[in-house]
């Protein structure tokens, strides 16, 4: 039996790759900040360097795009996954991949997120 995309994909929203200058930050007091891997209208995945930080108690996300000074802050979220990513060759750093699902967004946040996805993504995943 062959597995098609429809059989394995459970997401409600299409995911998109983003430009290299797009970052996610949990805040305002977390040390988790990293490059966005992909984004959708339902959530975001980003990679970050694991440190010895205490368990994260932040429930607000910021999305930043350096190229056009875009920033979207105070996005409510819940963590869906936070797992070790592939090893970085010749490095003692541990990279992690964090997947977040947005909480209830305001109309302004939805509009800004749509703008981000129109102008800062490079194609469907």
Please name the CATH architecture.
Beta Barrel
Number of helices: 2
According to CATH, what is the topology? Thrombin, subunit H
Let me know the CATH homologous superfamily. predicted glycosyltransferase like domains
CATH class: Mainly Beta
Which value, in Å, is the CA radius of gyration? Answer: 15 Å
Describe the largest sheet: 6 strands, antiparallel, barrel
The structural domain count equals 1
Q: What's the β-strand tally?
A: 8
**Share of helical residues:** 10-25%
Strand order of the largest sheet: 2-3-4-7-6-5
How are helices and strands ordered from N to C? HEEEEEEEHE
On the 0-100 scale, what is the average pLDDT? 86
Give a brief outline of the structure.
By secondary structure, the protein is mainly beta. The protein is 14% helix and 45% strand.
What would you say this structure looks like, in words?
With 125 residues, the chain is mainly β. It has a single domain (13-118), classed as predicted glycosyltransferase like domains (Thrombin, subunit H). It contains two helices and eight strands. The chain has helices at residues 5-8, 107-119, and strands spanning 16-18, 22-27, 33-39, 43-49, 60-65, 70-84, 95-102, 121-124. It has a six-stranded antiparallel barrel with strand order 2-3-4-7-6-5. A hairpin with a 3-residue loop joins strand 3 and strand 4 (43-49). It is globular, with a radius of gyration of 15 Å. Mean pLDDT is 86; it is low at 1-7.
């Amino acid at each position: 039996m062959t597995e098609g995309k429809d059989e394995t994909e459970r997401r409600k929203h299409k995911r998109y790759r983003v430009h290299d200058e797009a970052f996610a930050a949990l805040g305002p007091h977390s040390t988790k900040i990293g490059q966005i891997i992909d984004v959708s209208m339902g959530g975001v995945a980003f990679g970050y360097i694991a440190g010895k930080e205490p368990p994260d108690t932040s429930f607000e996300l910021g999305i930043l795009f350096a190229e056009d000074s875009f920033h979207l802050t105070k996005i409510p979220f819940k963590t869906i996954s936070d797992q070790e990513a592939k090893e970085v060759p010749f490095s003692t750093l541990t990279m992690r991949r964090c997947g977040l699902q947005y909480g209830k967004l305001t109309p302004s946040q939805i509009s800004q997120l749509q703008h981000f996805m129109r102008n800062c993504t490079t194609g469907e995943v």
